[in-house]
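Extended Data, record Thiamine-monophosphate kinase
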Amino acid sequence: MPGGKQPRDEFSLIARYLKELDRGPAVVVGNGDDGAVLRLDAHEELVVSVDSMLEGVHFPFDSPPSELAYRAVAAATSDLAAMGARPLGMTLALTIPEADDAWLRELRLGLSDAVGDFSLPLVGGDLTRGSLTLSVQVMGAVPAGGAIRRDGARPGDRVCVSGPLGDAAAGLALIEGRVAGDGPANTALREHFWRPMPALDLGISLRGKATAAVDVSDGLLADLGHIAEASKVCVIVDSSQLPISEAVNSIASGEQALAWALGGGEDYCLGFTLPESHELPPGSCVIGRVEEGAGVRCDAADAVDGYRHF
Ligand SMILES: Nc1ncnc2c1ncn2[C@@H]1O[C@H](COP(=O)(O)OP(=O)(O)O)[C@@H](O)[C@H]1O
Ligand SMILES: Cc1ncc(C[n+]2csc(CCOP(=O)(O)OP(=O)(O)O)c2C)c(N)n1
Ligand SMILES: [Mg+2]
């Protein structure tokens, strides 16, 4: 174009930054039509979930766009992991305050990384102008009847988690400058906040074994509370068994580390209940037991509540 100016309407922005990330084995019709078409294998069911990320609520103002894109997709994908679903595809409803090419180029890099890392083609979406928001809808597949739900936990099951707890909350505290730290711990914790790794393979491997699962988004105790409520059981958590990383312990007091582990959320690992008859998956650890009763009980005196939007 004369003067090197690029058209700024949403269709040219979509064409430039949001297309051609839509290839995958399940994609029959990808980006660019009125709707995408995804293929399910015979005897499969569709798993669907959506999560929004807003500036100032889910990430700090002026965050790097590549990290935002990656994190929004990872957080949404984590719900597929918790259901034991194999990823099929995603859509992205993106709202941005202005059409800044450098910013959108960076966003695409993060999106592209996430598409590759989670095998989740971007098959469609929406682009509007307004306060920065990324809403990611993910779709996955499970064998009919095979989704891992929240309502199957039974007294006697072990309560397990798939990864360290509190890293994301510690990472956000570092990013926001609320705590200080340097060296590899600092880098690893920030990375954990920006690029969480949804446990897709673990979720699939837990089908038919775990009696219930959730992903840790609002905070461990809050999220286990969903299992307790849906399964009509009491979930007991032993705070001495929580996996807390060296990195977190290196920047925080024991009390702070425990508060982050129990209530910080956004680690996007899985919390699940597993009968004694099934072997503990590598990398996971037992943090408690399911008993008859209701709610979540934890020995930590001031056991913290999870994140609440209202
Ligand atoms: N606006 C809404 N309309 C209908 N259902 C909703 C809405 N918001 C949340 N839900 C449902 O309520 C449940 C809890 O939501 P949420 O805490 O966001 O789930 P998650 O933590 O797994 O992302 C989910 O099953 C979700 O689909
Ligand atoms: C700027 C900023 N402040 C605070 C937080 C912490 N935080 C925001 S939302 C949230 C809970 C998870 O988000 P939600 O929208 O409830 O996800 P869902 O449970 O629906 O997956 C937490 C811990 C953050 N990530 N960024
Ligand atoms: Mg969830």
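Summary. The radius of gyration is 20 Å.
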